[in-house]
Every structure is written in structure tokens, then in C-alpha cells.
Amino acid sequence: MVSTRCKMVVKDELRRLGLHFIVVDLGEVEIMEDITPEQRKSLETALSVSGLELMEDKKAILIEKIKNVIIEMVHYSDEFPATNFSDYLSEKLGNDYTYMSNLFSEIKGTTIEQYIIAHKIERVKELLMYEELNLTEISYRMNYSSVAHLSNQFKKVTGLTPTHFMQLKNKRRRPLEEVGNENDM
Fold first, then answer.
1. Which residues pair with 28 in a beta bridge?
2. What values do phi and psi take at 121, rounded to 5?
3. CA distance 6 to 116
4. What's 36's DSSP letter?
5. Topology adopted by domain 58-170
6. pTM for this prediction
7. Which of 26, 43, 73, 154 satisfies CB 3.0 to 4.6 Å to 68 for a cystine?
8. CB 136 within 8 A of CB 147
């Protein structure tokens, strides 16, 4: 589960099955009672309709927790952790970073660092689209050491500079009254 909507879907399905939950969090559910095989199957079926799945494999669960911590930090938090991310992740999930890093790379085929960068760049795109912050402010908010570092990483991932990305964004849509005017093509 990586969103509030996902958590709502899970809570609704648990209620529908008459199950009482203690916690429904990103990637984790704690139920008060034992779940019958029939309830489990119903829950599994209902969740799959919404694009969610039950996981029992401890490694797969840890991978989902790593992804959720990253997504929450990059997309839903206003500040990055004061410590380096490897320490933050180890502390948050109670596992050795080297173990998590090796497991993540083995299962996902990418490193945790690459996964973080991909999400940071997606968030930067989103912030650029909103046009509420300039590149310096975005760089600071996303914990880049400089605007140049952000710009270089953005170009490496997208093939575009942030400025070029914004220019393309501004060309995507035109007011209806301008569509078909030969001067604007």
C-alpha cells in the first residue's frame, strides 16, 4: 500500500469481512482476531480487484516496507531526514542497511539509491509542473547539494534539463482559441 486510498480500500474490506484491525499502515496490517481461510481468500480476492495483494514472504514484505519509506519520504514529507538515508532506513525498519540494500538489488534489479533518485526526479517533475517553487527552492526541498547537482541528475534520468522540461510542459496544451492558428505552430 503506497497511498491513503490503498489504506482506505484495505480498511473497507476488513470491515466488510467483520475483521477488527489495530493498524492499517503502508504495507502492513495488524488484525485483532485470527483470520479464517475463507476470510483470507475473500480478502485476497477483494484486494486483487483493487490492484493490491497479500504478502507473506518476509523478504517481499521488507522490500515493500523499504519502498513505502522511500515513497513517503520523497512524496509526502516536507523534509528529508537529518541523517544520511542508510541510517534513517536502518533505524526506521530495524534492519541492517547492507542486508536491505543487497536484498533490494537482488529482488528489484535496481539499487535503493537508484530507486530513491527515480522517485526524487518524479517529485521534482511534479514540483516543476506546479510552478510554485523555483529550481533553487526545489533543490533545497529535495535535499540536493546544489541546483547544478539536481540539474545534472534530472538530465541523466530524463534526458532533459529542468528548463527544457518546463518549456515542453508549457507547449503541451494551448488555449482552444489558439488551436489551428498558423502563427502558433
1. 25
2. -65, -40
3. 21
4. P
5. Arc Repressor Mutant, subunit A (1.10.10)
6. 0.69
7. 26
8. yes
